[in-house]
């Protein structure tokens, strides 16, 4: 697993876990601006065959670290990201709870896909 790469792919609005050129996991997001830059994380998944190797945690860590480094507030809608944040309170100052406006925005954006 030493050839695992995690990168942000803004064109696809997701952070990706890549193994040998193949995307094997993702943390999908949408950018939202409510007077401040916010990133709504709504889905995280790792291919079944790569489960149990800690890749989701590595993905979440890099996605959240880069989001914070870019000065963007984390909006956790994804159940995995929500659970991850409960175990990592250091992200608390850079996180905001989802509001109905966030959820309406996300629903509208995803309906257009």
Biggest sheet features: 5 strands, mixed
Query: Please, how many domains?
Result: 1
Specify the overall morphology: globular
Helix content class: 25-40%
Give the tally of β-strands. Answer: 5
Report on the structure:
Helices cover 32% and strands 34% of the residues. It has a single domain, classed as Aminopeptidase, CATH 3.40.630. It has three helices and five strands, in the order ββββαβαα. 25% of the residues are buried. The protein has helices at 55-69, 79-87, 100-111, and strands spanning 4-9, 14-19, 22-33, 37-46, 73-76. The protein is α+β, with helices and mostly antiparallel strands and 113 residues long. Strands 1-2-3-4-5 form a five-stranded mixed beta sheet.
What's this model, at a glance?
This protein has 113 residues and is an alpha+beta fold. It has helices at residues 55-69, 79-87, 100-111; strands spanning 4-9, 14-19, 22-33, 37-46, 73-76.
List the helices and strands and how they pair.
Elements: E1 4-9, E2 14-19, E3 22-33, E4 37-46, H1 55-69, E5 73-76, H2 79-87, H3 100-111
Parallel strand pairs: 4-5
Antiparallel strand pairs: 1-2, 2-3, 3-4
Search tags:
34% strand, 113 residues, globular, alpha+beta, Aminopeptidase
């Amino acid at each position: 697993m030493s050839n695992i790469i995690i990168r942000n792919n803004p064109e696809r609005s997701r952070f990706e876990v890549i193994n040998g050129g193949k995307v094997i996991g993702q943390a999908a997001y949408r950018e939202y601006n409510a007077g401040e830059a916010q990133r709504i994380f709504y889905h995280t998944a790792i291919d079944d065959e790569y489960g149990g190797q800690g890749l989701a945690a590595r993905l979440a860590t890099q996605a959240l670290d880069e989001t914070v480094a870019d000065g963007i507030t984390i909006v956790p809608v994804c159940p995995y990201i929500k659970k991850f944040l409960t175990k990592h309170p250091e992200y608390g100052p850079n996180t905001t709870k989802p509001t109905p406006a966030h959820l309406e925005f996300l629903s509208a954006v995803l309906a257009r896909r």
